[in-house]
Amino acid sequence: MAAPAELLFIFLRDFIIFLAIYLIVALSLNLEYGYCGIPNFGKVLAVAGGAFTVGFFPGRIVSAIFNIGTAEYNGVADYASLEYHATIINEVNKILAANPAFSIAIFLVTLIVAALVGAGLGYIASYPAIKLREDYLAIMLLAMGEAIRVIGHNFTPIIRGNLGALVPDPFAWAGEFRYITVLVFVVVICILVFIYLARLLRTPLGRVLRAIRDNEVVAEALGKDVTSTRMKIIIIASMIGAIAGALDAFKAGGIISTMYHRETWTFWPWVMVILGGAANNLGVVAGALVFTTLRRVIDFFKGYLDPFVPFSVVWLEPLLLGVILLLILMYRPEGMIPEKPTQTLDKKNYEKFANSRDVTSEPQEEDS
Predict the structure, then answer these.
(1) Which of 38, 96, 136, 234 is the most buried (most CB within 10 A)?
(2) Are 56 and 50 in contact (CB under 8 A)?
């Protein structure tokens, strides 16, 4: 039996990986909803697209490069078959374990491909509906999110339909430190996403997004292309969401379409954004941390509450999380950390700009 210290380490390791992946999704949703006012209720579309890319792309590429299965299994077309899939993945993992540099390259290339797939899905989802009112746009995006799950479940060539697909392990070379390596890569990518969004929103684009969110008619009157800007934001956020889905698939080591549904990959990120504070990335970090902690606590203790609740304890977690969300909306709708103005100048230049203007002087009347 594992020692308590080891169990605590495993718990913290898995918790941080889980938090970092969901934080990436929540940050991308905050870019859409918090800063641009896009009610994306189809966030699962991009996340599932990235995960499906991991189930489809790296195994086939490595098989093709090293001719795995060409002689014995009549070509790599058997990659998706019930009979040879696990055998081919095992051979792929042996190659990746023996070539760390090649494994990392495959991992990074797959993330890039997943991001491109996410961009394509974001464009497809937004193009027919981007000019709709917010409520109709939300319904359209929600429908698109459901569509990809149905496609993944029924279209066998992507991730083998309802059988699911094994995922090549690009971290097999790390051996017993595999999960620590996954933790490092996931956390580093999460930090890079946070820095990228922070810098993006400190540019003039950040003010344009807020103007569109607050009053798109005024933004259009000032010469801003609202439709084009909203579409670009959906594409960028979809790329980030797809990267999170790819990381989740690599972490799990396998994928099936039922892993990606609207509750866990759409509504949970919404709770994180609303809990922490929309249009505030630090607030989203706080919201994601509190939400994931509450989930772990509820999940750990719900078994002890089974004799005391008049329904199946399985439903306790979504019910409690729903109640928490309602309380937030009722008593603190601005979130834990409310939105703050975004400075487009750094502190030194902002102070220099402010000091150069005499804001206390009153305008003098001209002589008549």
Answers:
(1) 234
(2) no
Residue ranges of the alpha helices (H) in the chain? Answer: 4-29, 36, 44-65, 85-98, 100-126, 134-154, 156-159, 178-201, 204-214, 216-221, 226-252, 262, 268-276, 281-301, 316-331, 347-355
Which helix (H) or strand (E) is 166 found in, with range?
Answer: strand 165-166
At 297, which amino acid appears? V
Answer yes or no: are the C-beta atoms of 69 and 165 closer than 8 Å: no
pLDDT digits (tens, 9 = 90+) for 61-87: 998 898 886 545 444 446 666 667 888
Place of tokens 């630090």: 282
Distance CA 316, CA 36 (A): 34
Which of these, 166, 164, 153, lies nearest to 63 by C-alpha position? 166
Dihedral, 299, 305, 307, 311 alpha carbons, nearest 10: -60
The Cα 143–Cα 151 span in angstroms is: 12
How does DSSP assign 206-264, residue by residue? HHHHHHHHH-HHHHHHTT--HHHHHHHHHHHHHHHHHHHHHHHHHHHSEE-GGG--HII
Spatial separation of the C-alpha atoms in residues 20 and 25, rounded to whole Å: 9
Question: What are the backbone angles phi and psi of residue 341, rounded to the nearest 5°?
Answer: -60, 145
Share of the chain above pLDDT 90, in %: 49
As given in the structure block, the two tokens for residue 41 are: 């209720």
If we measure between CA atoms, which residue out of 144, 146, 153 comes closest to residue 122?
A: 144
Structure tokens belonging to residue 273: 């954004």
The per-residue pLDDT for range 251-289, each reduced to its tens digit, is 999 999 889 988 899 989 999 999 999 999 999 999 999
Stated as kind and residue range, the H or E segment containing 337 is none
Task: Say which residues have a Cβ less than 8 Å from residue 258's Cβ, sequence separation at least 6.
Answer: 149, 153
Q: Which residues of 200-226 are buried (b: 16+ CB within 10 A; e: fewer)?
A: ebeeebbebbbbbbeebeebeeeebeb
SS3 205: helix
Residue 324 has pLDDT above 80, yes or no: no
